[in-house]
């Protein structure tokens, strides 16, 4: 498996499409963070206790925050690494030749997945370190220990999230013979979870708990709860809910509307352990989705006939 891992890792890091998409993500995310730093300089009072965490969650000048940008465009990079991982080998007719060597099937697919996951980890860690360096240069003081620990947890959750999309791309690569079909299926799934499900959630919430001009705060809250429940079927929403408690210490798993309608909700920051408990169900859901997708790809590939490939 080590030989497969290092070969696939070299192919990923040396491919032009990976470099182009990584550069786009880096430039746009870096621009968003730079505008956030400029906002801190213009309004020094906005720099609170967790200044470094604000760099990842603050939106400036119409650009989304780094968290939102990673949740929306990060899956494209993971899909790019996985949609042709298997079927491209069948198309070139190299599967039988590779597996005729002393390489087991499970080592082959495991090596491909681990190489893709390592590549995604390199990208996430590099971008986070770049943002960390920009913040250190602009703010002039290092982060506290709790901030640094939260950033490490954020990186881990982001890698798990991108690992789901990588496993999904590999699953489609196993299910479809043509790379174009697997790419279209993966992109369609990405669009459904990132765009269409948000529309569907709003429609379902409006049907089950309609909001009118004379609606009470309870009606508005019911509408929001139904929408949030539907969105939890999306890995994008799970990722955002899992990382918000980590990057926003005052977040308690409640929407802004719920906090406004309940006067007994405290606003003091939570400890790292308590914040992790708030997002723990969503994190477990992401790990489960990633495991199920890769397990399905693994089982289908292990049962697949390759003698004629």
Q: C-alpha Rg, in Å?
A: 22 Å
| Secondary-structure element pattern, one letter each | HHHHHHHHHHHHH
- Overall mean confidence score, pLDDT: 81
Extended strand count: 0
**What is the strand content?**
under 5%
Structure description:
The protein is mostly helical and 309 residues long. It has one domain. Helix content is 76%, strand content 0%. Helix 8 packs across helix 9. It starts with a helix and ends in a 7-residue tail after the last helix. The mean pLDDT is 81.
Keywords, please?
309 residues; mainly alpha; 13 helices; 76% helix
In short:
With about 300 residues, the chain is an all-alpha fold. It has helices spanning about 1-15, 15-40, 50-55, 65-80, 85-90, 95-100, 105-140, 145-175, 180-210, 215-230, 235-245, 255-260, 270-300. Helices cover about 75% and strands about 0% of the residues.
Question: Mind sketching the topology for me?
Answer:
Layout (H helix, E strand, L loop, with lengths): L1 H13 L1 H27 L8 H7 L8 H17 L4 H6 L2 H5 L5 H35 L5 H31 L3 H30 L8 H15 L3 H13 L8 H6 L10 H31 L7
Helix pairs in contact: 1-7, 2-4, 2-7, 3-7, 4-7, 4-8, 4-9, 4-11, 7-8, 7-13, 8-9, 8-11, 8-13, 9-10, 11-13
